[in-house]
Specification:
369 residues, mainly alpha, two-stranded antiparallel sheet, 15 helices, globular, transmembrane, cell membrane
Length: 369
């Protein structure tokens, strides 16, 4: 699920750009799905080794992975920059919460599936609107458009009736199914659900990236004029990339709402948008492994900072100021350091080192670096 389909950076030309399907597509799809199933099973098995709180953190990582994978696809493959993915997550979260509240009488599983589907639709529609506008913009102008979207989120939730204002919305409690109630805790069940849904989302993104749409996105990213001359619809390709990324972020927001049983504008701030983007860059733009690293950093780094501030003899006022801000500062420092030492991110650096080792192994008498 991870490597080969996400590491093709060069934009192919000719027949492949114009739409011819890559060779051996079906075996690759089967391999990708098989790897995804294996990874999800390993994650599910790993939840038995974790306590409830760490299973809760694992579920959060899965939710944010949907957003970072979609954002990595948007930035790394189509070359579009978004600073407002937190707003797209919020769109999915509110879509899930409204649906779950309206369908409270339905069985738990059906309510969850229906909520996720509505979250995808709502986030995709928002992404379509932003993508249509963004297709005419480049670089900082598109970033400014998406940033305005996330900054307007609190005003939208306060103005639009039914969104709960600053307090947001709560969703009906969804317990562990009766057949598993005596075996696993609620947090472990939530981690299972998130692992399955995140696996489906990430697998879909990987397959899209490996197919015709991914080829077109890379062609547009590398040279829009050349892509247009090769028959690639540049504007439509950009919009499709934004819609896919928004839909993935919407699923992430819905999963976050599923785990926390609440959605509010305070959970989807500008800081979260910046953390998502920095996490993707630190992990490695356009790489699935980089999206995983970014999602882990978004969840684990603030938790470690919180543990550190609690352990140090700090005053209550200073600890309150450091809460949240220190994690953002560390993200910035990490980004600067990695930009200097490994511009391709953590996943890129690991991939480059492995490639160097393989080249060294082919040269008799030389040691790997």
């Amino acid at each position: 699920m991870t490597s080969s389909t996400t590491t093709r950076d060069a934009a192919p030309a000719g027949d492949e750009v114009r739409g011819a399907l890559p060779r051996a597509a079906r075996p690759r799809v089967r391999r990708t799905v098989a790897r995804a199933v294996l990874v999800v099973l390993l994650v599910v098995a790993g939840t038995f080794l974790l306590d409830p709180y760490r299973n809760y953190l694992l579920a959060l990582v899965g939710a944010y992975l949907c957003a970072t994978a979609g954002l990595g696809l948007l930035v790394g493959r189509s070359g579009q920059l978004s600073l407002g993915h937190a707003a797209l997550m919020a769109a999915g979260g509110y879509g899930y919460a409204l649906t779950a509240g309206a369908a409270a009488d339905l069985p738990d599983g059906l309510r969850t599936v229906l909520g996720l589907l509505v979250a995808v639709v709502v986030a995709a529609v928002v992404g379509l609107l932003v993508g249509l506008a963004g297709a005419r913009l480049h670089g900082p102008y598109l970033a400014g458009l998406t940033l305005a979207l996330v900054m307007a989120l609190p005003a939208i939730t306060t103005t639009v009736p039914g969104l709960g204002g600053d307090r947001g919305l709560t969703v009906p409690f969804q317990p562990v199914p009766d057949a598993l109630d005596a075996v696993i805790a609620l947090e472990q069940w939530q981690a299972w659900v998130v692992a399955v849904v995140a696996g489906v989302v990430v697998t879909a993104l990987v397959l899209v990236d490996a197919g015709r749409t991914g080829v077109r996105q890379r062609a547009v990213r590398d040279d829009e004029v050349a892509a247009a001359l090769a028959g690639v619809p540049v504007g439509r390709t950009k919009v499709v990339a934004f819609v896919l990324s928004a839909a993935a972020a919407g699923v992430g927001g819905a999963l976050l709402c599923f785990v926390t049983q609440n959605v509010s504008p305070g959970a989807f701030t500008v800081s979260l948008s910046l953390l998502l983007l920095v996490g993707v860059v630190v992990g490695g733009v356009g790489r699935l492994a980089g999206a995983v690293v970014g999602a882990v950093l978004v969840v684990v780094l603030p938790w470690l900072v919180s543990l550190l501030t609690e352990a140090l003899p700090l005053g209550a006022e200073l600890a309150r100021r450091l809460d949240g801000n220190l994690a953002l500062l560390l993200f910035g420092v990490l980004l600067v350091v990695l930009t200097v030492l490994a511009p391709e991110g953590v996943a890129g650096a690991v991939s480059r080192r492995r490639a160097a080792r393989r080249r060294a192994a082919r040269r008799p008498g030389r040691e790997a670096p």
